[in-house]
Amino acid sequence: MTDAPFRLPSGGRIDRGSPVSFSFDGERYTGYAGDTVASALLAHGVRLVGRSFKYHRPRGVVTDGVEEPNALVQLGIGASGEPNARATQVEIHDGLAAASQNRWPSLGFDAGAVNGLLSALIPAGFYYKTFMWPGRWWMKYEYFIRRAAGLGRAPTGPDPDTYDKSWAHCDVLVVGAGPSGLAATHAAGRTGARVLLVDERPEPGGHLPGTSQSIDDAPAEEWVSAMVSDLAAMEEVRILPRATALGYYDHNYLTVLERRTDHLPYRERRGRVRQRLWKVRAKQVVLATGAHERPLVFRNNDRPGVMLASAARSYVNRYAVRPGTSAVVFTNNDTAYDPALDLADAGLRVVLADVRTGLSDARRSQLRRRGIELLAGHAITDVRGAKAVTGVSVAALNSSASAYAGGHRKIRCDLVCMSGGWNPAIHLFSQSGGRLAFDEARGAFVPGEARPAQFSAGGCNGTGALAFALSEGREAGKAAAAACGFRKRGGTPLPKVDVVEETPIRLLWTVPSRHLGRRLDKHFVDFQNDVTAADIALAAREGYRSVEHLKRYTTTGMGTDQGKTSNVNALAILSETLGADIAATGTTTFRPPYVPATFGALAGRDVGELSDPVRTTPMHQWHVEQGAAFEDVGQWKRPWYYPRDGESMREAVDRECLAARGSVGILDASTLGRIDVQGPDAAEFLDRIYTNGWKRLAVGRCRYGLMCTEDGMVFDDGVTLRLGEHRFLVHTTSGNAARVLAWMEEWLQTEWPDLDVYCNSVTEQLATASISGPFARQLLTELTTDVELGRDAFPFMSWRDGHVAGLPARVARVSFTGESSFEVSVPSGYGLSLWTALMHSGQRYGITPYGTEAMHVLRAERGFIIAGQDTDGTVTPIDLGMEWIVSRSKDFIGKRSLGRADTTRAERKQLVGLLTDDPEEVLPEGGQIVDTVTKPPMRMIGHVTSSYFSANLGRSIALALVRGGRDRHGEPVMVPLERAVVPARITEPRFFDPEGKRAHG
Amino acid sequence: MRYSIFSLARNAFGHHEGWPAAWRSPEPKQSYDVVIVGGGGHGLATAYYLAALHGIRDVAVIEKGWLGGGNTGRNTTIIRSNYLWDESAHLYEHSLKLYEGLSRELNFNIMLSQRGVLNLAHNLHDLRELSRRVNAIRLNGIDSEVLTPVQIKAMVPILDTSPDVRYPVLGASLQRRGGVARHDAVAWGFARGADARGVDVIQNCEVTGIRQRNGAVEGVETSRGYIRARKVGVVVAGHASVLAAMAGFRLPIESHPLQALVSEPIKPIHHSVVMSNAVHVYVSQSDKGELVIGAGIDGYDSYAQRGSFPVIEDQMGALVELFPIFSRLKMLRHWAGIVDTCPDASPIISKTPVKHLYFNCGWGTGGFKATPGSGWVFAHTIAHDAPHALNAAFTLDRFSTGALIDEHGAAAVAH
Amino acid sequence: MLLIECPWCGPREESEFHCGGEAHIVRPLHPEQLSDPEWADYLFMRSNPKGPHRERWVHEAGCGRWFNVERDTVTHEITAVYRMGGPPPNPSAAPGRKR
Amino acid sequence: MAERYRRRSALAHLGLEVRASAAVPHAGVVLGECRMRGLLLLRGDVASAGFRSAVSEVLGLVPVAEPLTTARKRDVTMLWLGPDEWLLVTPDRRVDRIERTLRDALAGQRAALTEVSHGRAILTLSGPHARAVLAKGCPLDLHPREFAPGRCARSRLARCQALIHHVSAAPAFEIHVHRSFAQYAWTWLMDAGQEFGVRIAPME
Ligand SMILES: Cc1cc2nc3c(=O)[nH]c(=O)nc-3n(C[C@H](O)[C@H](O)[C@H](O)COP(=O)(O)OP(=O)(O)OC[C@H]3O[C@@H](n4cnc5c(N)ncnc54)[C@H](O)[C@@H]3O)c2cc1C
Ligand SMILES: NC(=O)c1ccc[n+]([C@@H]2O[C@H](COP(=O)([O-])OP(=O)(O)OC[C@H]3O[C@@H](n4cnc5c(N)ncnc54)[C@H](O)[C@@H]3O)[C@@H](O)[C@H]2O)c1
Ligand SMILES: Cc1cc2nc3c(=O)[nH]c(=O)nc-3n(C[C@H](O)[C@H](O)[C@H](O)COP(=O)(O)O)c2cc1C
Ligand SMILES: [Zn+2]
User: Fold this and answer.
1) Which of A138, A518, A602, A903 to substitute to test the interface with B, most B CBs within 10 Å?
2) Residue C21's closest chain B neighbor by CA?
3) How far is it, in rounded angstroms, from Cα C74 to Cα C80?
4) What is the pLDDT of residue D2?
5) Class for the domain spanning C3-83
6) What is the DSSP letter of B236?
7) Which of A316, A523, A743, A893 gives 20 to 30 Å between its CA and that of A181?
8) d(CA C88, CA C68)
């Protein structure tokens, strides 16, 4: 096998023993384990890898890492596809299929490139100025605009992978495993502190493996491996590779996304978690996130083959790839010199253009030794080539760098390396709320005042020299551990590194262009979003002078790279245009995530059946076996109705309703909320919570209660049993169980701590079957020996303890159906036994299980409300016609609110019954009620809250809230629906057994 | 200069160096007839309508930061008028109608995209509420319909409508005229329109005090000096309580973070707006290609413009449940605004205990859709020292009388 | 994501807690004696300050206790945690309600 | 007569007895359901001498005052749940009697007692990766330096509330959830443990 043409014969961190085959745009390539898509393509001389967002300009690889704006590729296909992956970070593996994006029909020939020709017509913000005519046509224009925008494509099916999340707690979290991060981890780890070190790269070392740096007179990698093996021996130190810190939130909470399988061949991924989101809570944080090199802004600086100097160096050293054959290195600072040397060593012809003049002899002689031509005081004025760089023009700058001092010289080359200085990776620092400061000398934003319990060290702290990065890291690690109470004497000595004296950077935010001098065209600032220096000037001119306006008007920094390479250049150019200073202009806001993060990982395993708990009762299995249809009530699954073979829902519900009044029906009422209220002040407490009084309720008896919120609106209702002098059992609605308990606790703890009362939930301790109908008593008699069931011995609204079917049970004579009915509660573990016993013995009475639907019908026949259905948070007890339950003699929560102007209005919506003229017509719940049908807007006087066909009554019934409805019984109204207008009549909200005799029977 | 394809073409020859500023950046004068505090969409719209409809042009809009940098600049841009109660429905519908003509009125393309807003129902309770809402809205003369799961699937094929998921989709309401707009453009368009009519739009100027004498407002203290004013309208959203404290009263408002996020840009895949209050997520796709996603509020008071991560986690869980194909897409950025939540989830557009001091606040999680309508009625209220019929119910004293306009109802979050 | 120090359980994640809003709003002893606006003041009006704020939290998924927190609503820094009914720290610097 | 019926645990329907025998090579976690426990919620004022002595008279245990700790005497374990709240874990067959005697002893004290034996499910989680599995859904710091054996804490497990009791350094945890959440918690733990291999523990 012959190697790729641009692969160096030796060196690099690639594993030449493990060749890897992958494809790009359908073409097959080989690389080595350790390559990224970018490095492997460059090894094959592939320069053109993508198209830009707006103008569809040909683009190549600019960086070697996370900050890549151009080289975005689509990975995979179908359901496991992934758009917008950074080719500079995607590790190749066998079978990987990458494709270019945002081009049609092909990367080489892209029809969208016509936008480039129209670019004069479509400067920043052009769409605000046009497409307004004719009036409604925007939607048509928009169709084409949308199609042109976007980058990659969404997957076509559900994600086959699994994701995971985990908490992680540590004393010290170190972000970044470069030299300063390693030094920090080592210093903290040796104290015994729990240290977590995360780095986004596959291997530790940070930028070092991309350099030819030596440490302690040996290749830096040796120092890195020594550190790593030390750390491996420390029990409380943990290193996570391929783990990117995404967000830095309050109180040292950070999110870290670990990519666990994306680098593996597909066959090795099965059964593994693709990505894990770590939610880290650290006592102390050390940020050692390094720095990003800044591009220079010059004409056509976006041609494929223009890349960052450090990236070019990294391709040589880390990946053993020659990124070209002949390079022009363009810089305003010293850090491009080492790359130039490494390129020359790798066999490239190199010319170095430096905008500065007073360069050190050390640097000059380094270049001379490699035969690198130095053009001091020069700049690149233009880059030639279309799909790849073919050459550049250079010229000498005048002293203010505003124009050229001499003629333009053309240099043929296929690689342009640029360095405009470095931007410390202050993203996390800033997210955490730290203040930034502008360092004039370096032309960079650096950490200023930090939030508590946090350190920055190394490149991200604005520290340029490796020696200082190491010592800063070590000090930060030590201090962070100490702050957690971990100290250890002594320490590892700092390794020795060479220090080269630096010539200060010369900031040059835009390079004048060759043809137009002052005028800035196609000097790209934001590569991905095609924002040029001219766009920035235009925005400023038009009044978009805040850096935030600039961003939004031009979209600078809004791409997938979030402006890692562009933001500082953009704001500096803005400042220059406005004549303001950079510090005052400030940055846009840094927001998480540091790199785009998979939604699936953020959702973790809380998907599918785990997306929310499903709560079931002890009898659930029986319902399932009987083929019940279920209704979701909060998190509960409740039987809705029990269809028999071929039955429609209506038929099933009719049958269930008839049975509950005609023979015996049985309902699983286990979901009802139950609260055990104990203490000498229990009655007093309930007096305050409920609208009605409790002190005179006798032990052994039950009472229905209603509770309001403090603004007087009905909140919950239910029956309460007095179990003893100092003990009550409160029932709440199923949906409100937790809320009511929390509500009681809140009042007790915050307002009435003097009350001697304790509340405990027993919702789950009890399983309840409610049997209803004329044979209910008889059935129960068969199953109990110790509960007196006679009408007088066991009157309505009382309870008894005893045994049912041999189980310890509490029986309450309460009724939500209006029939003679008994609620039998047993400890949950016996719930199913109780149920099957009742079903078994009930057979000969025709016992019929009924679900929530029949329950609703039955209670509506009697006019009983359902809180949350017949009320909506705007209904008072009075509105429900329940003044009888509102105590006059005591205060209770919400009482004062009932006396306000609006709550005493006669025209309030009040609960009424509603009977359609056509007894077969069942109104839809939510139907609106009017007096007269007019053209909209119609005057609505209320709405239908509950509506059913009542088999027991042989007609439809409904409950409704109607303005002033209490005084309108008998009056006709209309319910206009989409299909028809339904005439109906207001009635008493009670349709069956109006006196309520049967419950007592 | 009027904006059009022709002016664009003309300027192309001059390398776009001839465009004038969209608005001036004047120094504040010593006094104005009306000072509007808050340069968000609502404040700018108020100033615009004061000048355009009420002939009051001696107006300053005072903004402490940059125009539209508050909630206007950070909202998920959903526009709809399908509100339950009559008072709300009429106000939001008025706003939607204004929106429909706004690009032309302002000569600034605000990219109103009426792609339809769906509200999903996941259980019987949701369905009931949805039907109540749709019926009420329709009878109020506003477009609204109920969709079956089959119709929903046809409209949003990427939505998981299978019946056996944890939160099955049982139905949805649809307002076809609902949609999204380019939020920044709304602020900028109103600013440009107001500026052209003589309004001073003043940025980087913070109101730090409200001066009053004999119970009437006299002017405002600012970081750039004292400014006299005959009338002062305060439209500062999340900061309403802070300004009220300056004026010596309290509001029934709490400021909470509300978060939103965007995905990386992708080719068009989602063409409407889908909201689910039950699972707390809603999503649309912008013209640039990113999915714009929102959720519920964080549970505590905050002025920090950032929220808590668990809210994002829940939101993403709900998102991938509803749209399984979104799982491999990536979150690009998440942020928060400070929303002024009111106990009844309805705004306050009202006179105050201080004469000639007016407050417009409480829009909470859902005021972007109301921007033109809110400015329109607030301008009326300020100009006439009395509310318009459309905002008569939205007074501050409804909290004493109890006449709340409870828009929580089915919509836990009324975006 | 706040880290809140429960007075009983120590520092715990925000997701275990629920915020109950402004602290030290005492329920009037005799609501019936208040005017409608006075009642509205108790029910609805909040100081909602920008800066130090005293609020109630409950350790919902933990020990279930309510307690008070003093927290800056801009920086989210928690400056004090104290038990229900306990005196607020350093009352001279008291933020919050102006009557 | 109650003996006629066996108390069904929350996860009875899963047939764990049968599944427990299945061999799982390299199981990193062991998951099970602990079925026969009695549970009593005890509330009271720990500052009151009367309350303390009443409790210790019956149980031989003083209500633990130190948050997040547990105490054990013979077959009764007392878990701190809150400053006025404890969970007593007893053998199932003893719970009635303990309740009765304790209730009598507490008469006149500011205290309350509620039986919740049937209202909870207790899942057991052990094995070398038990912590890693738990950490996926529980925000507690589970490092033994912070959460030593013998400690307990109420917290969250994914989307439900849970009481985590670190019963031994093995490590082994008992996880109490409300009965209706048992199925969810079980499924969740099985899913979270999958990458490590899950064995089902024989029933207690
Ligand atoms: C994440 C999020 C999503 C949302 N989604 C939607 C949605 O989909 N649909 C919808 O209809 N609504 C939505 N909203 C709500 C909507 O954004 C707001 O209701 C609306 O934008 C408010 O506009 P405004 O002009 O009143 O406020 P803002 O735009 O916040 O303007 C108020 C201005 O007042 C300024 N200010 C404050 N104090 C002072 C002072 N002392 N001096 C001077 N100036 C001051 C602020 O700087 C700010 O610019 C959302 C909000 C958020 C945060
Ligand atoms: N190529 C270069 O010449 C170059 C590049 C960077 C730094 N430097 C110099 O190196 C020294 C500093 O070394 P250092 O250790 O500070 O930086 P470094 O760049 O060597 O290491 C930083 C590490 O942090 C990782 N990282 C950054 N953000 C992260 C995040 N959010 N989550 C996870 N990992 C993240 C990076 O991938 C990198 O591995 C300084 O002298 C600096 O100027 C030189
Ligand atoms: C509708 C909408 C769409 C957005 N689209 C993007 C986007 O494509 N890229 C991006 O980086 N940010 C996008 N943002 C987020 C903004 O960058 C920014 O975070 C938000 O306006 C809040 O401002 P702040 O982060 O500066 O505080 C969008 C915001 C909104 C409201
Ligand atoms: Zn606690």
Assistant:
1) A602
2) B300
3) 15
4) 44
5) alpha beta
6) -
7) A316
8) 8
- Whether residues D44 and D83 fall in one domain: yes
Q: Other CB atoms closer than 10 Å to residue A493's CB: what's the count?
A: 8
Q: Are A310 and A636 in contact (CB under 8 A)?
A: no
Closest CA to A797 of A815, A772, A817, A773: A815
pTM of the model: 0.97
The amino acid at A950 = S
Per residue in A442-457, pLDDT (tens digit) is 999 999 999 999 999 9
Residue D118 per-residue DSSP state: G
Computed on alpha carbons and rounded to an integer, the radius of gyration of chain B in Å comes to 21
Does the CB of D117 have a partner CB in chain C at under 8 Å?
A: no
A600-655 pLDDT, tens digit each: 999 999 999 999 999 999 999 999 999 999 999 999 999 999 999 999 999 999 99
Taking a C-beta distance cutoff of 8 angstroms, is the pair A29, A21 a contact? Answer: yes
CB contact under 8 A, A615 and D158: no
Pick the residue from chain B with its C-alpha nearest to A903.
B402
Residue B370, amino acid: A
What does each C-alpha distance from A622 to A221, A639, A656, A831, D18 come to in angstroms?
66, 10, 17, 11, 21
3-state secondary structure of B30: coil
How far is it, in rounded angstroms, from Cα C32 to Cα C16?
A: 37
Q: Any chain B CB within 8 A of the CB of A844?
A: no
Question: ipTM score here?
Answer: 0.97
DSSP-derived 3-state class of residue A611? coil
> Around A121, how many Cα atoms within 13 Å sit in the side-chain half-sphere?
11
CA distances to A674, B128, D183 from D179, rounded to whole Å, are: 14, 30, 8
Closest CA to ligand 2's atom 23: A176
Instruction: Give residue D173 CA to ligand 4 midpoint distance, Å.
Output: 20
Q: Which domain holds residue D64?
A: 37-117
Domains defined for chain A, CATH in brackets: 15-118 (3.10.20.440), 162-291+424-483 (3.50.50.60), 296-419 (3.50.50.60), 519-593 (1.10.10.1100), 620-671+765-850 (3.30.1360.120), 673-761 (3.30.70.1400), 858-888+903-1000 (2.40.30.110)
Classify C84 as helix, strand or coil. coil
The 3-state secondary structure of B154-217, one letter per residue: HHCCCCCCCCCCCCCCCEEEEECCCEECCHHHHHHHHHHHHHHCCCEEECCCCEEEEEEECCEE
> From the CA of C33, how many Å to the nearest CA of chain B?
15
What is the per-residue DSSP string for A638-674? EEEE---TT--HHHHHHHHHHHHHHS-EEEE-TTSEE
The answer to whether A746 contacts chain C (CB < 8 Å) is yes
Do residue D19 and residue D45 come from a single domain?
no
Q: Are the beta carbons of C53 and B242 separated by less than 8 Å?
A: no
State the pairing for strand pair A306-308/A415-419: parallel
D177 assigned to some structural domain = yes
Query: What's the CA-to-centroid distance between C16 and ligand 4, angstroms?
Result: 9
Min Cα distance A233 → chain D (Å) is 19
- Closest C-alpha among A868, A716, A713 to residue A704: A716
- Band (pLDDT 50/70/90 cuts) for residue A517 is very low
Q: How many angstroms does the Cα of residue A1 sit away from the middle of ligand 3? A: 49
Q: Which of A86, A207, A329, A417 to mutate to test the pocket of ligand 2 (most atoms within 8 A of CB)?
A: A207
User: Is the distance from CB of B117 to CB of B78 less than 8 angstroms?
Assistant: yes
Q: Are A204 and A177 in contact (CB under 8 A)?
A: yes
Residues D26-74: tens digit of each pLDDT? 899 999 999 989 999 999 999 999 999 999 999 999 999 999 999 999 9
CA distance A447 to C31: 54
Is position D2 within any domain? no
